Amino acid sequence: MDNTKPKLSLEYIAGFMDGEGTFTIVKHTSSADGYLRFNVSVTVGSTYKPVLEGIIETIGVGKIYNVKQMVNKRFYSLEFRKRSDVITICQALIPFLVEKRQQAEVLLEFCLKREQKFAETKNNRYSKYDDGDLVMFQRIKELKYA
What we know:
Blueprint: H1 10-20, E1 22-29, E2 36-46, H2 49-59, E3 63-69, E4 74-80, H3 83-93, H4 101-120, H5 131-144
Antiparallel strand pairs: 1-2, 2-4, 3-4
Helix pairs in contact: 3-4, 4-5
């Protein structure tokens, strides 16, 4: 099997993400301080690592994790967890996404809003979430299960 990194177009990556990817906002409350937090991510998995490497090469961000060893091959997860990385991939793929376009748009709006709030609060990473953040969290959850 050829393991060279394929050259991938944004259209191909968008199709791959439409079929296999996830665009998510996860809400949780810290057990240490009781503070509400949201984590954003874009994730896609594959047993063919070169395609994931090709996505990183094309988009310029992301990290590959070994998830598990299957019977005769490994399963890998490509993840975009940093807010800036999520913004980068969403902006690159939204014009080409079909099935998950709305999810990516909501996720991008959420991330851009948080970046603005972050800047306004002088980089206080614990800037308060508001009802708009909760609405976007709910919206992406609804779109995921529609």
